[in-house]
Amino acid sequence: MPQRIGYHVRVFLFTLGHNIELVGIEYPEGNDEVKKVVQLHRKIAPELIAIIEDRYNILRHVSYSQPIGRRALAQNLGVGERMVRAQVDFLKNAGFLEFSPLGMTITSDGERLLQEAEGYISELHGLALLEADLAKQLGVKQVIIIPGDSNADVTVKRELGRAVVNVLGQYMTANMVIAVSGGSTMAQVAEVVGLQAPLTTVVPARGGLGEQVEYQANIIAAVIAAKLGGAYRLLHIPDGMSEEAVEVILANDANASHVIEMIQHADILIHGIGRAHDMAIRRSCDAPIADEIVKRGAVGEALGYYCTLEGQCVYVTSSVGLRLDDLASIGLVIAVAGGQKKAEAIVAVTSAGGQDVLVIDEAAANAIKAII
Questions:
Q1: What is the spatial distance between Cα 196 and Cα 75, in angstroms, rounded to a whole number?
Q2: Measured distance CA(50)–CA(195) in Å, rounded
Q3: Is residue 254 a contact partner of residue 195, using CB atoms and an 8 Å limit?
Q4: Residues 146 and 188 in one domain
Q5: Which of 3, 23, 167, 196 has its CA 20 to 30 A from that of 227?
Q6: Cβ(130)–Cβ(343) below 8 Å
Q7: pTM value surpassing 0.90
Q8: Per the structure, how many domains does the chain have?
């Protein structure tokens, strides 16, 4: 199981026209010291917490959108340009942002501060306790919660991807096979990969979806492999084909059979979670079939399996690749999803079993807590 590393947090506050700097607070493994600092701020200067969060969010948005101007940043944050100007001027003077004719960029000190502040922000939102509680309730080994709502803030979806890559980096060794599913969140995972693993092979977990190309598992597998400096193998068998047609293809295509063998014995699987009706439509099911899937009680989908809230599978899309029954033989299974609307789907898929690490955002976590 991956463990949270210790934190070295520098929290910069600004009040009454003065800069107050808390530097070099060492947080050992665990959250006790982080809790003490958060509790101290809540008691002695609760008004400063909002400033800390504002500056953290500004650094996070600039990091993902740089170079970016003040006006565009204000629009992304949904706040006034005057507030943004005051905060970015402070962050510039503190050495965390740089300005150029193209816009703002984050400095190396800013990136370091952004990483160091993650533990503080997580504790501030009470996410550490919620992670442990949801892991126990959902029967998952580890839950990682990213602050915010990925449906309202695109940077949160990027951070979901970054969290998945961090977990991947802790488990990755040489000569591994990594299977990946498709979807918009998985596309974000592919975009933020910054690891190097030249002996890794990446494969799609299932056949293709009838959706935009950049969200297809084959494309995501190829992008991740390129970022890793590794190899990839593709599976050119779309979802929805009859079993007879698939058998004909496999009987005449040794390469496809070999790829399927690699998929079913992958070392790591990374997959998204979808809402049942939405995924039925994306998989080109006829409207009556999509409605029937919902009538059977399905609320969540993963790897072509449609599950009820209790984890019962009520429909399976005809395809090749990984099946839910195969997850027990996979070394590590990482599921990722975000947004309040995905809460029921996440509960359904995790209830079906086989998940090791679940990466979600705060909006989904709070909605899941209400359900369970």
A1: 35
A2: 34
A3: no
A4: yes
A5: 3
A6: no
A7: no
A8: 2
